[in-house]
Amino acid sequence: xxxxxxxxxxxxxxxxxxxxxxxxxxxxxxxxxxxxxxxxxxxxxxxxxxxxxxxxxxxxxxxxxxxxxxxxxxxxxxxxxxxxxxxxxxxxxxxxxxxxxxxxxxxxxxxxxxxxxxxxxxxxxxxxxxxxxxxxxxxxxxxxxxxxxxxxxxxxxxxxxxxxxxxxxxxxxxxxxxxxxxxxxxxx
Amino acid sequence: xxxxxxxxxxxxxxxxxxxxxxxxxxxxxxxxxxxxxxxxxxxxxxxxxxxxxxxxxxxxxxxxxxxxxxxxxxxxxxxxxxxxxxxxxxxxxxxxxxxxxxxxxxxxxxxxxxxxxxxxxxxxxxxxxxxxxxxxxxxxxxxxxxxxxxxxxxxxxxxxxxxxxxxxxxx
Lengths: 188, 171
Fold this sequence. Notes:
The complex is a heterodimer. Chain A has helices at residues 2-9, 20-27, 32-58, 62-87, 100-116, 118-123, 127-138, 143-146, 149-185. By secondary structure, chain A is mainly α. The chains are: A mainly alpha, B mainly alpha.
């Protein structure tokens, strides 16, 4: 077994060490993963805001226009929450020197809480806008006569419900992992 | 903490434990390009962390905690990191055998690294710290796993390594 330890320790150094100047530069930047995710989410928000911005201009019905404004505001609120969350996720700061069990528990709890609260910060802000927009469609020609509004409303409700339930399920799975972690640290 | 002290602690940490940080990279990331990113993350994270270093644990414990925590987060973010299993599950699996006759040190090393990368946490961290010659108490201080569980896991790690490298290098 000692030879395996020697073998492990004898591996060649792969990369040159970083200079302190490089480290300071990198420390000031947003982590590449967070940067990529921010770009993705911002692109999705631009699509939604652009789409409902177009509706605002295109539809004369005041309710549909009010709904469009509310959806845009809701999307901006969701983006603000996502960007705020991203900031706290860049690189672990004060938590990074915690024991692995504490660090990992912290990560799991943060993710669980995020999933559990998805109703509040991700879905609820979009509901008023969608409801008002659909209400506007319901009494506006030619949509009112088409009978499709109920179908669209049901579809929206199903999508929202599906997202919410999926996240609740994810939160429960994370809770199981948090509970299992307790077994590793609990001294009998 | 003044930045000069933070820099000094970082330099000391790298002088004493830089090689060990370099070694753990292969156990967490198979892709060389991403390994470089991970190394950068660890160095930046380490330097940042020293702003908060209060001496409540040794420099070694601090360095290993930061390095392994950042590496664990790196694996968690990787969608294609591959399936990870527990030490117990790995012991149940038969050796694929393709490198069983691994004669060269390079083959042995590749086999060892692949085996470590298969493990989930905290087993991966424990085997790495064991290979760095740490005892159960030191591993418990770094990981937070209770010492009794560490001792059991080390016992299993030894059995696993002995079985997988049976023709290799007996102790």
